[in-house]
Amino acid sequence: MSQQMPQADFSLVLADYFELVLDVPPVQAVTQELVLSRLVDLQYRMAEARPVKRPVRQQDRVLLDLYAFAGDLPIPGSLQTDLRTLVRDDMLVPDFCRQLLGMLPGQKKDMQLTLPADSELGTYAGQPVSFRVHLKQLEELRLPELDDRFAQRTGLARTLPELLNVLAQELHQECLAEWRKFITSTLVEAVVASSQVELAESLIAAEIENAWRSSEAEGYRQLGLSETFLNKSLSAWQNSPEQRQAAVARLRTTLVLHAIATQEQLGLSPDELAVVLAPLSERFAQPLAAIYHELAASGGLEPLQLQLEAEKASAFLFEHATLVFEGEPITV
User: Based on the domain organization, do 180 and 308 belong to the same domain?
Assistant: First the structure.
């Protein structure tokens, strides 16, 4: 949600968020398969890449712009710009790889594909659609040998066995973080579902348009598409049941977390905001005050504050919930 909402645009009765009890799953185990998969990912990231002017082959790396459309309407949520990915059979959607093979750098192509039944594109899942693809760059990769020298090049270890151990530890920390994220989101969803939130239609419409502007409008402009096309894209978003559902969920969640933060006095202190803005200050070589005023003038400060406030409220729910594993309360 990108703007503060007038009180008249919604009503909220906050559910009780204390004494939440949640049965939690175990943390995902780090298997040898996961470690080896991470090792291969690292191998590809450290590969020697050479731009080439030839047809696409398996295991090349490509840079793509693409979006999907049905009829003459772009499908909401399908735009991807500067997508850098490996060419392999399981990329994106079924049959995409086969139709990408043989394309030349700079070439544009329309692909007729059927989306999988579990596609994130909702209404169009399981249906035939068109993908407009621009192959912007093609790279041939030379993979390094997986040996002690490779381990040393990563800067993480001296030997390959040591590197595998480091990767296993990293994966364990990531699994812990994902476990905590899952539990936190489940707790938030429970409080949101139990709260009574009424939203004005104008508020939902504004949220859908804000989401479109932040995720796809500028991308389509960068592709050189016309205002007529952009209007069709916005119309598709406005008429999408999935985008409406997502907008309502975002609004409800933001309002509930804001109410919790207000009630528990979890607002951001100037020092906390300074810590968040410090990387921007360093990146743009500007004093904190200048970054602050620029964000305020552009309308970016308030969404940032709402996001950070929501994170604090979510953490509050996690810290005050009773987590149960195999019938016994646990301490995290």
Answer: yes
**pLDDT tens digits, 126-175:** 899 999 999 999 999 999 999 999 999 999 999 999 999 999 999 999 99
Report how far residue 83's alpha carbon sits from residue 101's, in angstroms, rounded to the nearest whole number: 16
Question: Which amino acid does the sequence have at 220?
Answer: Y
Q: Identify any residues that bridge with 199 across adjacent strands, giving them in sequence order.
A: 10
Q: Could you tell me where the beta strands, DSSP code E, fall in the chain?
A: 10-13, 21-23, 48-51, 61-70, 73-74, 80-86, 108-114, 128-142, 196-199, 322-325, 328-330
**DSSP classification of residue 306:** H
Provide the residue range defining the domain that includes 223: 7-26+165-330
Round to whole Å and give the CA distance between 319 and 255.
20
Residue 295 has pLDDT above 70, yes or no: yes
Q: How far is 203 from 301, CA to CA, in rounded Å?
A: 20
Quote the number of domains for the chain: 2
Give backbone dihedrals phi and psi of 86, rounded to 5 degrees, phi first: -85, 145
Structure tokens at 251: 């609004």
Q: Is the residue at 42 inside a domain?
A: no
Residues 21 and 59 in one domain: no
Report the residue count for the chain. Answer: 332
Query: 119, 93 in Cβ contact below 8 A?
Result: yes
Q: How far is CA 256 from CA 8, 22, 40, 305, 317, in A?
A: 16, 19, 42, 15, 12
